Amino acid sequence: MDKIYAIINAYLALVSYPFFKPKKPLWLIGGHNAKLYTDNAKVFYEYILKQHPNIDIYWVIDKDAPAFEHIKGKKVIKGSVRAYLYFYHAKVVLFSDTLNSDIAPFSFVLPLVKHFYKKTYKVYLSHGTIAFKKMPAFSGKLAQLKKAIFYSYDLAIASTTLAQKAMLGYNINPSAIVLCGSARHDALESTEHNKNTILLTPTWRPWLQGIKDFDGSDFFHQYALLLSHKKLLMYLKVQGITLQFYLHHMLHEHWEAFKVYENDQVHVLPPHTAIDTTIKSAKLMLTDYSSTCSDFYYLQKPVLFFQFDQKRFSEDVGSEISLENDIFGEVAFDVDTFVTHIINTIENGYALNNKQKEGEKYFIHFKDKQNCRRIYDTICQRNPKALLCTP
Q1: 3-class SS shares of the chain: helix, strand, coil, % to 5
Q2: DSSP three-state, residue 383
Q3: In contact, 242 and 263? CB cutoff 8 Å
Q4: In terms of pLDDT, which residue wins out, 131 or 258?
Q5: How far apart, in whole angstroms, are the C-alpha atoms of residue 293 and residue 305?
Q6: Identical fold between 2-181+368-382 and 196-363
Q7: What is the distance of C-alpha 145 from the center of its chain?
Q8: Beta pairing, strands 331-332 & 121-124
Q9: Structural domain boundaries of the chain?
Q10: Is residue 81 very low, low, confident or very high in pLDDT (cuts 50, 70, 90)?
Q11: pLDDT, position 128
Q12: Phi and psi for 65 in degrees, rounded to 5?
C-alpha cells in the first residue's frame, strides 16, 4: 500500500510543481532506505547545515523510522507529496545506497517522473568503505536495470584508491568517480567512557536475505556460540568490559533473535542505536568483513576478524582484497580461537600489532578532516547549478 501511495504522491507533486519556487538552492540527502540517520550522509548533512546555511537541505526519512526525532535540521517524509515536490526542484540529491531507496521511490522508472531523475545532480556517497564486498551479480532485466542506475550517477565519492577500483565494477561511469575520502571520518575521534566497551559488528550475507529460518542458520549459530562463550563472559566480567553487539542494517529485522544472550557483559544494540558514538568509544572492534573496520584503523584501534564462512563468502560475495593474504588483524575461523585473540588483545592493552597497522594504507587515504569540504567543492565545481534557486 505504501508503494501505491508513493506513486500517487509522485504524480500529485507534478501538479504542484509549476507553482512552487524555492527561495534557496534546494538539496536532498538520505540513506539506508530512509530508516537510519548515520554514516557518510549524516556527517555531510550536518556539515552543510553548519558551513553552508545558504543551502536549503532536507533529510529524507521514513515516517516510522526510530531515528526521526534525532535528525538535526529540516526533514521530509519519504514518499510524500512534499518529498517528491522537493525532489523535482532539487539541485543536488545525495544518498548512501540508491536514490530510489533513500530519496524518491520508483523515480528511475515512472513516466514523467524519470525526467526529473535525469536532470537532478545525483551524488552517491556510499555508506562505508568499499573493500570487502564486490557488487552482487544479477542477471536478466534486473542486471540491466542495476547497471543503468549506477551509470546514471553524476558523482560517486570514493574514500580510497581501492574504493575507486571497486566502483568501476559497479558500472559507475569512470569520469564520475572522485577520490574525496569518507565524510564520516571528519567526525571521528576517540572518546573515553567510564565503562570499557568492545564492539562486535558482523556484516550481512546475501544468502540470509529473506531467510525464513534465521535461527537455524550457521550465522546465528556461530554468533550465539560467541555471545554465550563461558570463558569470554567470565573474562569480560572480571575485567569490567561490556561487549556491544550490533547487526548490519540489512539484518536489523533479526536483531531481537539475539536478545536471549543479553546479560551484564553483553548488550544487543537495537537498530536505532547511534553506532557512530559506539565506534568512537569502543576500544576494540570484532568483525568479519565489515568496512566499518576503516573507522577503527582511522582511530588507530585494533580490529579482529571472525571468518567462519570465509570460503562461502569469497565464492558468493567476493572481495576487492585477498581474504587469505590481505587481512589486517588476527583472523579466526572458529569461536574458541577468536575468544583467545580477543583476550590476548585486551591483555596487551589494546595495542596494535604490526599486521593491524598495515590496515591504514588500504582503508584510509585522507586524515586531514577535510573530506566534507572536498565533496562539497567537487559538487560545486562539477555542477554550476548546485547553488542556484531557479532552473
Answers
A1: 45, 15, 40
A2: coil
A3: no
A4: 258
A5: 10
A6: yes
A7: 22
A8: unpaired
A9: 2-181+368-382, 196-363
A10: very high
A11: 67
A12: -70, 130
Which range has the worst mean pLDDT, 35-39, 73-77, 228-232, 352-356? 352-356
Cβ neighbours of 73 (radius 10 Å): 15
Average pLDDT, the chain: 87
226 pLDDT exceeds 70?
yes
* 196-363: CATH, from 3.40.50.12580, 3.30.2280.10, 3.40.50.2000, 3.80.30.30: 3.40.50.12580
Cell 562505508 appears where? 128
CA separation for the pair 338, 223 (Å, rounded): 11
- DSSP element (H, E) containing 60: strand 56-61
At 172-197, the pLDDT tens digits run 899 999 999 999 999 888 766 556 89
Select from 3.40.50.11820, 3.30.160.70, 3.90.550.10, 3.40.50.150 the CATH code of 2-181+368-382: 3.40.50.11820
